[in-house]
Amino acid sequence: MPMIAVETQFGCLGVEETDGAITRLVWNGRNQGPETPLLQEAAAQLAAYDQGRLERFDLPYRVQGSTFQQQVCDLMYAIPLGETRTYGDIAKELGQPPQPVGQACGANPIPVIIPCHRVLAANGLGGFSGDGGVETKVALLRHERAAGLLI
Q1: Which are the contacts of 76, defined by CB distance < 8 A and separation ≥ 6?
Q2: Is 95's pLDDT higher than 60?
Q3: DSSP of 86-130, one letter per residue?
Q4: Alpha-carbon distances of 48 from 20, 26, 113, rounded to whole Å
Q5: Are strands 11-18 and 3-8 parallel, antiparallel or unpaired?
Q6: What's the pTM value of the predicted model, to 2 decimals?
Q7: CA 55 from chain center: how many Å?
Q8: What is the CA angle 30-128-51, rounded to 5?
Q9: Is 3 in a helix, a strand, or coil?
Q10: For residue 151, what pLDDT is reported?
Q11: 116: how many CB neighbours lie within 10 A of its CB?
C-alpha cells in the first residue's frame, strides 16, 4: 500500500492509503509506493497540525473492523480540537459499556487523524496505542491545549 512519511514533533508518522481512503497511521513510517494526491493532502494536513495551524483533519478514511469499531472511530473523529471525552461518554452515546469502547479506541488504526488521544478514562488518562504510549497522548493533548489538568 502507498505510504507517505511526515516528520513531526511526535515522531515520523507514516500515513497509508488504500483505494482512495486513509486506512492506517504508524510511527516510524517511510515513503513507499506512489505519492498520491490524497497522501500529499494527508502529509500537508499532518504538517499543519504539527505546526498548530490545523484544527480538524478533513480526509476520507476507512476503518476495517466491526460496525461498533467504525462507530467508535466516527465519534472520536468528531471530537473537536481542544476537547476531550471519556470512554463512558462514548459508551453512553452508543448504548454500550465503557470497556468495549476502550478496546475500540485502542484498536484505532489511524491515531492522531482519528483523535483517540482525546478520549480519557473517567479517573485518568487511559491508554494510548501509539508509539510512546501515554507520554505521547499527553504530548498530543498539550499540543492541542486540550487538558488544562495535564499542563
Answers
A1: 90, 105, 108, 114, 115, 116, 118, 119
A2: yes
A3: EHHHHHHHHTS-HHHHHHHHHT-SSTTTS-GGGEEBTTB-----S
A4: 21, 18, 12
A5: antiparallel
A6: 0.93
A7: 13
A8: 55
A9: strand
A10: 46
A11: 27
* Mean pLDDT over each residue of the chain, to the nearest integer: 93
CA distance 138 to 37: 31
Residue 82 to residue 64: CA distance in whole angstroms: 27
DSSP codes of every residue in 65-92: S-HHHHHHHHHHHTSPTT--EEHHHHHH
Residue 10 has pLDDT above 90, yes or no: yes
How confident is the model at residue 129, as a pLDDT? 80
Residue 107, C-alpha cell as written in the block: 484498536
Is the model's pLDDT at 33 over the cut of 60? yes
Catalytic residues: 116
HSE-up of 110 (CA within 13 Å, CB side)? 28
144/81 Cα distance (integer angstroms): 6
Q: What is the mean pLDDT of residues 133-143?
A: 92
Task: Provide the 10 A C-beta neighbour count for residue 72.
Answer: 30
Q: For cell 478514511, name the residue.
A: 61
Q: Are 64 and 22 in contact (CB under 8 A)?
A: no
By percentage, how much of the chain surpasses pLDDT 70?
A: 97
